[in-house]
Design goal:
The protein is of the alpha/beta class. The protein has 3 helices and 5 strands. A 5-stranded mixed β-sheet has the order 1-2-3-4-5. Helix 1 packs parallel to helix 3. 32% of the residues are buried.
C-alpha cells in the first residue's frame, strides 16, 4: 500500500522533489514533496486503522514550512483539525492541482 501510494503521488507531481525524511531520533515522514523552498507537503501513509505517530509532527516542524497530510485506504476523506485524512485519489488530486499551479497555495 505504501509503495503504491508513493509511486502514484510522485507521478502526480512531476516537478516536485520527492524524498523520505527521517531524523536522528527516528521521527519520519513517508513522503515529502517539495515544490519550492517554501512549499512542501509531508505525507504519512497509513493502513485504514493506523494513526500517525507523534514523530510525524516533530518531522513536519523540522522541514517547515510544510503542510501535513495522512493518506488511508478509506471510502471518503475526513477533514481534521491537525492533518486532513485523505483517500489516495483525493491526495493525488491535491498534489496534481498544487503542482499544476506551480506550487503556489490555492
Amino acid at each position: 500500500w505504501e509503495t503504491f501510494c508513493i509511486e502514484h503521488l510522485i507521478r502526480a507531481a512531476p516537478h516536485a522533489d520527492a524524498y523520505f525524511y527521517r531524523d536522528e531520533d527516528q521521527n519520519e515522514i513517508d513522503l515529502v514533496l517539495e515544490f519550492s523552498r517554501t512549499q512542501r507537503f509531508g505525507i504519512e501513509i497509513k493502513s485504514e486503522g493506523g494513526q500517525p505517530r507523534s514523530g510525524f509532527d516533530v518531522a513536519l516542524r523540522a522541514i517547515a514550512p510544510a503542510t501535513g497530510y495522512v493518506v488511508k485506504p478509506i471510502p471518503e476523506s475526513i477533514p481534521t483539525d491537525r492533518h486532513p485524512i485523505l483517500t489516495l485519489s483525493d491526495m493525488i488530486r491535491t498534489v496534481s492541482d498544487h503542482s499544476r499551479l506551480g506550487g503556489r497555495p490555492r
